[in-house]
Amino acid sequence: MKAVVCTRYGPPEVLELREVDAPAPRKGEVCIRIGATAVTSSDCIVRSGNVNRLLWLPMRVAVGFRAPRRPLGMVLAGEVASIGEGVSAFSAGDPVFGLDRFGFGTYAELKCMSQRGLLAPKPANLSYDEAATIPYGGLLALHYLKRGAIQPGQNVLVYGASGAVGTSAVQLARHFGASVTGVCSTANLEFVASLGADTVIDYTKEDFLTRGDRYDLIFDAVPAAHRTMSPGGKGGLTPGGRYVSVTDGSPKIQVADLTFLKELAEAGGIRPVIDRTYPLDQIVEAHRYVDTGRKKGNVVISVREQQPSGS
Question: What domains lie within the chain, and their CATH numbers?
Fold first, then answer.
């Protein structure tokens, strides 16, 4: 099968598309024929190897010292190709989507995952390309909004509202009944408003902290690799308000969260946001673009021919 191999840690050019052995599902695993994946900021951090000094050794132990041991990629949407012994949750032919934060391997035509992993039936109304936009940003945004104890009627500010996590956070906060303020650059003001933000602030022209508005929850959705400034700790909060950041620790994510996002997508409560789509053999170009920090929503990699939305 074809898979993208990271030959060493470094710039996007270290990625190579190669022929590798196809995986076979072990006991309790499903093998998924991948229709689409996505290039996330986390993928780019792993590829570059540029992490906090305290995380350097743990990352190398977990991922590989000279280069990642497995093909990169965390997100997938596709179809179950085969199942291993003892699998009861899925059957061959089932359309699925999911996330493998630590096993990687989704920049490939086939990927094996445990049936107990972060895997769920694909939203019936979304194509593989569209479904691949949901797990990463959606699961992270949902986790941190829950950590911030979001409630109906609150004033919520999303800092970095145009990225993969930010676009999901704006939509989810609206779903939970909050009044949403999105902070982004000039070029993305109308885009963020179209996602449901009640107010949009251009951070290149105005510091939201000087407006005098107060928020019950401030969610900083900007990845560390693309951070040029920070909204600060408790500034701008109401008494008892909360500040959470996407850089705060390792989120605990459950299959129930992915199922929730599936149902919400099918109900129209959260919609896919795709900036650009690349074929698998243009993975280097896709990483170059994500490295700029200017993507809106998600950068999708089409691995095979897409099925239409609604099928």
Answer: 2-133+272-302 (3.90.180.10), 136-245 (3.40.50.720)
